[in-house]
Each structure stands twice: as C-alpha cells, then as structure tokens.
Amino acid sequence: MTKKIGKVGNVKKAPRNKARQEVAEYRVNGRAAYRKLRFIDLFCGIGGFRIAFERAGAECVFSSDYDQHSQITYEANFKEKPHGDIYEVADADIPVFDILCAGFPCQPFSIAGVSKKLSLGRKHGFDDEKQGNLFFRIADILNYHQPAAFVLENVKNLKSHDKGRTFQIIYDTLTSALGYQVQYRVIDAQGLVPQHRERIFLVGFKPSRLFEFPDVPKSGPRLGSILEEDVDKKYTLSDHLWKYLQDYADKHKAAGNGFGFGIVGADSVTRTLSARYHKDGSEILVGQARGKNPRRLTPRECARLMGYPKDFKIPVSDTQAYRQFGNSVVVPVVERIAKNVMEALARPVEERPLLVLNDAKKSRHSASPTKRAMGSRKGSRVLA
Ligand SMILES: C[S@@+](CC[C@H](N)C(=O)[O-])C[C@H]1O[C@@H](n2cnc3c(N)ncnc32)[C@H](O)[C@@H]1O
Known about the structure:
- The protein has 384 residues and is an alpha/beta fold.
- The chain has 2 domains: 2-220 and 329-375, Vaccinia Virus protein VP39 (Rossmann fold, 3-Layer(aba) Sandwich), CATH 3.40.50; 223-312, Alpha-Beta Complex (DNA Methylase, Chain A, domain 2).
- The chain is 30% helix and 15% strand.
- It is built from 12 helices and 12 strands.
- It has helices spanning 17-20, 48-55, 68-78, 111-119, 134-145, 165-177, 239-254, 277-280, 299-305, 318-326, 331-346, 369-375; strands at residues 2-4, 10-12, 25-28, 31-34, 38-42, 59-64, 99-103, 149-155, 181-188, 198-205, 263-264, 285-286.
- Strand 3 (25-28) and strand 4 form a beta hairpin.
- S-adenosylmethionine binds next to helix 2.
C-alpha cells in the first residue's frame, strides 16, 4: 500500500526493522514516513554532491550538467547521463524531490574569474547575463518545487563580491522571497584532505529545522598520504615550462605581487586546486629528487586531493580530468554537511520566525522570486 504525504509523492509503508535501517525517517508535520529522501544534483559536474548525499542515505532523482566531458565521467561512475543545459529543462520535468544540491558555477564570482573577465572587457557577477543569473534558475526551481531543504556551494568570495551586494541578493531571494530559513558557513577542507580550499555553503530549510554545520578539524592529513609512488615522467615539467614559471615568479616578486608557483612535499598542505591546473600546474608542483624538475599532480592524485573514492573512474583526458576535479567539491566536506542535513530533516519542524533581512511578507507566493529579489536590491542592507 502506498500513501501520499504532502507534495513529496508516494511514500512506502513503514518497513520492518531490518529494512528500516536502509531508509531515512522523514517527518512531515510531525508524522513519520519511511523512505529514502530524494535529492537533485544541479550543475553536477562529476558528482561530488551525489557521492556525499548517497553516502548519507539519500537517493538521486535528477542530475544536470551541460559539459559533455563531465557527463562522460558522471555516466561512467553513476550509470546515468546528466540532463544538459538547465535552461532547457522545464521545472515540471524535474521529478519531485526533498533536497536541492547545487555547486553553481563560480567563475563570475571568483577573484581569478573576475579579473580575467574584466581584462577581457567582459562583465562579471550578476551582470554576466547567463552565468551570473544561474543562481536565479536555482531560485525558480526552488520556487516551483518547494523542497524541504537545499545545499548550495560557491567560492568564498561570493560573500564579498560587489561589496556584499551579490550575496545580499542571494540571501534575500532565499529567505525573503522563497521563505527558507538559511544558514551559511565558509569551510576550509584542509581538516579532511591535504588541500587549503575554502568554500561557502548555504543550507536552507522550509519549514525550519534544527541544523548545525559540522565541525571540521583545523588541520588534517598531509600530501604524502595521497601521493602515488610510480609517476609517469610526462607529469614532470619540461625545462622550458619550469624556466618560464621561475622567470614569471621573479618578475611578480619584483613588482611586489605574491603570485607564483607553489612547491609542495609529503608534509605539505597544498594551495587550492583550480580548474586551470591543466595549463601549467603552477599552484601545486610536487618537488622531486635533486636535479629533477618538479612535477604536476596526476589526475588520480587530484581525485584523492578532492576526497574522491579510490575506485572513482576517470575516463577522460588529463586536461579534462584536471578541469573536472578543480571545479568540484571536496567530497568528505559535503558528506558531513549531507549527514547533518539528513538528521535535521528527521527532526520535527521548528517553530521559528523566518530569518529575513528585508521585509519579506509582501509577495512570498507570487511567481518570480528572481524579479522580486532584483527589485529589493535598492535600499537593502548589506550583510554583516
Ligand atoms: C563549479 S562546477 C560544479 C561541480 C560539481 N559540484 C562537482 O562536484 O563536480 C559548475 C558546473 O556547472 C555546469 N554548468 C554551467 N552552466 C550550466 C547550465 N546552464 N546548465 C547545466 N550545467 C551548467 C558546468 O559545466 C560545471 O560542470
């Protein structure tokens, strides 16, 4: 027998004790139901969110990423090809779900992305018409499906971009326009993997649930724990590239800039792996025996640096693999957040006034959160 609960679709009858361990308990207005919670994996890349939420006990019901190379990696690992451009998918074609996950594209927000785009004479942030507005595609999906929770991920400086206005609009949209109770935190992955990687996570619930971000240790494993033993010589920098990087670093040092290559060893914690690591690998170069030029990390080492499981398949070229891991989330960080989100959803609904920054009440149920939030930009308070 199946039973409908709210808008979350068919819910299986409470299973017997053994099966009960395999499904999450989900409360809707104080009533318990037993089935797996469902999530959607937007801007899924190679599925970092998916591994984390599956490990936490949830079931993926939809994925989307328009990059063909990422689709290949995703399909090889999850036996499912993600849907393409999220603008081409109608809201109604996304199945019913409980949790929306999205590490939405960060390029318009990241310092590197902004300076590169400015130097190309292009716009950035929300002015970048398509990419900057991808957040609003997320907002419209939230508005249509009204899931119980979401987890969004972006670069740390999302918060300071455009003097805080970008983040203000995002926060206002999620709270004032969409009615979610939202918490956010910048988490550095280096307590779980040997990489300094700070990312902002926004977690929202509707209705409100007691949720806390997980504690992540301040320091953790060292690079030696993820390095391979026999590394192909193709990963060693050519004399030409190594000379170029040293000259470039000298030039910038003379000009007072801190940019340059980063040499690491077994005891190190690396800099942030970027999507452009394939270009010269300069941010993370592994020192080698005397007389040998440093080398890049291999794609497998990058997978480990991002906390991917050791059997994760890498079916694409090195260039694509570097780009994919550099764009990804650190799996064990998201796994901890996912576990807490799942636990929060098993708790009773909280009676808590909505945390809003602006007056929310006027139009909570009207059609476009996007337009409302953009309209609220004038006179809105910048987050502390
Ligand atoms: C920062 S990455 C997310 C990576 C992912 N969280 C992971 O763990 O691998 C952003 C992704 O958004 C995808 N993307 C950008 N615009 C898109 C669109 N309009 N529709 C679908 N995917 C898009 C890009 O191809 C990229 O893989």
